[in-house]
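Example for tutorial group B:
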């Protein structure tokens, strides 16, 4: 006797629930639920983080409101959020497309999931739901507290905050649904680039060069004689005209924002109205269309594309002659090839290392328009060092996962015919070279504006590079002593990696301390900058020596076989 339709549906929901929770347990650390103390600590830290982000957002909105930059009233109108939410939604859609392409078609756990006695679209659905859960967590750490700060600034009523949390349950599904549709195209594009690596390289170089060139040209047209007081009213008027034109053209995003904040009625904002629910219904309908497209495209294509993307599929590879290299050069060559094939790592490091010198150019172009005293110049120097160190050191958090990303294959290093230190250190050489070039470029821009003598800028550059390399070795030692290989070997990725968190916190502390101490040294220099620069170089070299020593000491401890 065939089971009833209700029983079949319940079984399918049970299978889907099992798939989702199984993947969540592989990707998330739920150990805090085993202890009340750990659970309370986790909740308290999450709440504190939420409050801090909301407080920062409120402070920024409050400053612009008090300056009446966007409105004649001391408020921040919802039209400002149209620009902000356009950027947030676009970045979320891109991130979801990239992430879903990797998780749907390239994750290592696919080899196991396709063997389960479930429908193919159920595997697809479970991965979408897991990614939707990630998007909800991400929004709770940034987008939602940002809108809470916006509401506090504009003194919205309590109904706004309740509605905000309700509507964001659906908003979180929007970039995931778009990413699910675009992941099919991204998968095809990736396969084309895989067959034609020269085309991929040319496209990436052309795109990066075009973006860098355009941004630099825009920065250089910033005038160096800006009179903020004299031109304040004119600038404010131009900003309001821009907001008006932007909202008139991007009416869909404008309606999306009005769905969250409501619209003005007699100089007051009404959050919930008939128009709000109309916008909400249209928005839910758009999400439904994208979800429907996901399943219409996934059923005929997903299983075939997922199973054919495995590394063991047969490929016709033209054989090449063997070349004998030294065993040390072989490790460096291997790490270069591994690094260049990981698009995520390349994009992350190149993004930071290219953006940081451009940021220094922008800051100094703006500073050059300010008439500061000597103490203000010293503050400018210290802030430049902070803006150089903070992004570069923060990017080292990925270094705290480099060894773990190899999964179980990472333990093969113990069988190499060389000392353990060399194959481990070879994985860091590319990052050291790239970050050093980026820092040198940023320091050259810094020197061009601040007119440091060579005897001052040279030791200062050496010191900053030494601090970066020291932190990089520290991050590597964190991954050596607290490996997460099992997480990466099963899912190909992990979140809430404790090594990344620790590395990011230390990066922030080092950047702030170095910047603060450099300001103190510059202030006490009496205009002779060589001495504080040499002191900063000595500090960097000492940190580098200590971190390298600790790094090799931990290698001996962890890899020593008795």
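The residue assignment follows.
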């Amino acid at each position: 006797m065939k089971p009833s339709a209700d029983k079949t549906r319940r079984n399918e929901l049970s299978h889907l629930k099992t798939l989702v929770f199984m993947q969540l347990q592989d990707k998330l650390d739920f150990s805090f639920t085993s202890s009340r103390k750990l659970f309370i600590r986790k909740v308290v830290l999450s709440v504190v983080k939420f409050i801090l982000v909301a407080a920062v957002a409120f402070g920024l909105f409050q400053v612009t409101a008090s300056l009446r930059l966007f409105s004649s009233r001391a408020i921040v109108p919802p039209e400002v959020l149209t620009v902000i939410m356009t950027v947030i939604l676009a970045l979320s859609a891109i991130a979801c497309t990239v992430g879903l392409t990797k998780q749907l078609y390239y994750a290592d756990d696919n080899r196991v999931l396709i063997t389960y006695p479930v429908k193919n679209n159920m595997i697809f659905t479970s991965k979408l739901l897991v990614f939707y859960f990630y998007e909800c967590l991400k929004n709770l750490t940034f987008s939602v507290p940002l809108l809470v700060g916006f509401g506090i600034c504009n003194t919205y009523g309590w109904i706004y905050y309740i509605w905000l949390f309700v509507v964001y349950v659906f908003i979180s599904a929007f970039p995931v649904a778009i990413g699910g549709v675009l992941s099919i195209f991204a998968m095809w594009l990736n396969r084309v680039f895989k067959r034609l690596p020269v085309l991929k390289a040319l496209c990436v170089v052309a795109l990066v060069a075009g973006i860098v060139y355009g941004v630099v040209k825009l920065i250089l047209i910033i005038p160096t004689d800006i009179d903020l007081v004299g031109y304040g009213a004119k600038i404010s008027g131009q900003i309001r005209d821009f907001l008006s034109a932007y909202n008139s053209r991007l009416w869909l995003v404008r309606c999306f924002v009005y769905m969250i904040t409501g619209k003005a009625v007699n100089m007051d904002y009404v959050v919930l109205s008939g128009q709000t629910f109309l916008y909400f219904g249209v928005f839910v309908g758009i999400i439904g269309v994208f979800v429907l497209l996901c399943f219409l495209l996934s059923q005929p294509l997903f299983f075939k594309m997922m199973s054919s993307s495995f590394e063991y599929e047969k490929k016709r590879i033209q054989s090449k002659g063997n070349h004998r290299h030294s065993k040390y050069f072989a490790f460096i060559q291997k790490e270069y090839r591994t690094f260049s094939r990981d698009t995520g790592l390349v994009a992350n490091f190149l993004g930071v290392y290219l953006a940081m010198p451009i940021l220094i150019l922008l800051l100094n172009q703006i500073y050059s328009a300010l008439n500061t005293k000597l103490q203000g110049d010293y503050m400018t120097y210290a802030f430049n060092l902070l803006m150089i160190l903070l992004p570069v050191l923060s990017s080292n958090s990925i270094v705290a996962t480099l060894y773990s990303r190899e999964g179980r294959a990472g333990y093969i290093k113990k069988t190499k015919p060389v000392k353990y230190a060399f194959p481990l250190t070879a994985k860091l050489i590319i990052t050291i070279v790239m970050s050093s070039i980026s820092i040198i470029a940023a320091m050259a821009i810094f020197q061009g504006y601040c007119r440091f003598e060579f005897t001052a800028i040279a030791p200062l550059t050496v010191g900053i590079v030494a601090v970066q390399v020291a932190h990089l070795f520290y991050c590597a030692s964190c991954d050596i002593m607290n490996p997460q290989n099992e997480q990466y070997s099963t899912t190909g990725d992990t979140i809430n990696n404790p090594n990344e968190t620790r590395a990011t916190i230390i990066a922030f502390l080092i950047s702030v301390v170095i910047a603060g101490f450099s300001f103190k040294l510059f202030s006490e220099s009496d205009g002779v900058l060589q001495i504080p620069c040499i002191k900063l170089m000595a500090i960097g070299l000492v940190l580098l020596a200590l971190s390298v020593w600790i790094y090799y000491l931990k290698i001996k401890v962890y890899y020593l076989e008795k």
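The chain has a mean pLDDT of 76. Compare this with the pattern of hydrophobic and polar residues in the output above.
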